[in-house]
Q: What sequence folds into this?
């Protein structure tokens, strides 16, 4: 009996040593290479919770202790070894097309990012180029970049697009949940069968400026059109794989092939219904129940009954391992050179089990090592791939400027 117990303890010790070794290897990679996340919605949380008054929500403290905790704060960003973060400057679109008021709202969200970097200047520094990200990471700070989520932000104006670039935006997601007057969303009815003529002009101007074209949220037809038209690599800032979970927000295999030919990147997201088929199907069931209740009861009563239904039918949560499955699929389909990370923290109610908040990125990289990824693979996924895309977009912009009359 004693021999068996000693053998069991020895095995456990061996496992712990192996886990520690994996973590040390991850720490080494993330010290040398900035871990760059493609999408974080904490600026929206500032707007939603405290009307953009940063003094009322201290990002420097442990916000996991709040009654309604955020998924992002500086202590947990440090624990997560983040080296660069694209902060999403998002405002909702509730109907087709967008409105002029969205322009001001997005500028206000850009201002939140600048306030963050000023208020916490010992942690954050604004970045506009790949070289900036690398320099800031070497200096021990987190490079802060701006990504516009939704083309409704420009209100059909190339002039507004140019000024957003001047304010620091380095990608724009062409649509959000609703289509705009020049591009189709994945989650709205077909209106243009991809890009309208003005949408082609938007892509051209983004290439000329050096702003990355982000295809998360767009329809498959829009993906095809944008990749065909863009003279620079494109990105998916926070999407996963359709072959693994057939959600319309995910990227089909034929588009993965196009991304590889374009030298772009898919930044794999942690958003539950894009990661897990069970979670996605739960959402479909929830929506059907919402529609049924709305047709039968008053708004207040319907809301009350739906809340009770959700309590009785909790949503299944995906796991870290399922996120790794999406990464595996991209690697096996087109290779490791086209993978990044786009967590979507503070844009979802709860992250996958094991990836609950921004402190947990190293756990995912440990799992990738367990699956046979090399340290070089991890460096590419963490930051080298998106840095390559950024440099290519910056270089194409310089070429296009030279060609102007």
A:
């Amino acid at each position: 009996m004693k021999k068996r117990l000693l053998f069991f303890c020895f095995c456990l010790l061996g496992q712990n040593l192996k886990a520690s070794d994996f973590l040390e290897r991850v720490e080494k990679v993330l010290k040398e290479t900035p871990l760059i996340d493609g999408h974080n919605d904490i600026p929206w949380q500032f707007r939603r919770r405290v009307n953009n008054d940063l003094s009322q929500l201290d990002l420097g403290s442990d916000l996991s202790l709040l009654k309604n905790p955020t998924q992002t704060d500086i202590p947990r960003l440090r624990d997560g070894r983040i080296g660069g973060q694209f902060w999403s400057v998002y405002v909702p679109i509730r109907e087709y097309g967008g409105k002029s008021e969205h322009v001001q709202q997005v500028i206000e969200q850009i201002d939140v990012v600048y306030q963050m970097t000023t208020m916490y200047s010992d942690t954050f520094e604004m970045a506009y180029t790949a070289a900036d990200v690398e320099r800031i990471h070497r200096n021990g700070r987190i490079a802060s970049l701006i990504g516009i989520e939704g083309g409704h932000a420009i209100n059909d104006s190339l002039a507004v697009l140019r000024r957003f670039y001047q304010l620091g935006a380095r990608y724009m997601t062409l649509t959000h949940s609703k289509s705009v007057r020049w591009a189709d969303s994945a989650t709205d009815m077909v209106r243009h069968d991809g890009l309208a003529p003005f949408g082609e002009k938007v892509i051209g101007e983004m290439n000329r400026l050096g702003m990355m074209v982000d295809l998360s949220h767009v329809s498959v037809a829009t993906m095809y059109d944008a990749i065909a038209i863009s003279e620079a690599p494109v990105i998916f800032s926070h999407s996963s794989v359709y072959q693994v979970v057939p959600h319309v927000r995910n990227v089909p295999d034929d588009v993965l092939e196009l991304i590889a030919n374009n030298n772009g990147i898919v930044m794999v997201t942690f958003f539950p219904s894009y990661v897990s088929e069970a979670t996605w199907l739960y959402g479909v069931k929830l929506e059907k129940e919402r529609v049924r209740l709305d047709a039968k009861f008053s708004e207040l009563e319907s809301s009350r009954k739906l809340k009770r239904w959700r309590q009785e039918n909790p949503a299944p949560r995906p796991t870290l391992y399922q996120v790794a499955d999406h990464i595996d699929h991209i690697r096996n389909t087109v290779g490791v050179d086209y993978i990044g990370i786009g967590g979507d923290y503070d844009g979802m109610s709860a992250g996958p089990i094991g990836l609950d908040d921004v402190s947990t990125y190293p756990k995912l990289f440990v799992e990738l090592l367990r699956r046979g990824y090399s340290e070089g693979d991890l460096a590419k996924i963490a930051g080298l791939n998106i840095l390559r895309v950024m440099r290519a977009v910056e270089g194409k912009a310089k070429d296009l400027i030279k060609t102007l009359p």
The chain has two domains: 33-276+318-403, 277-316.
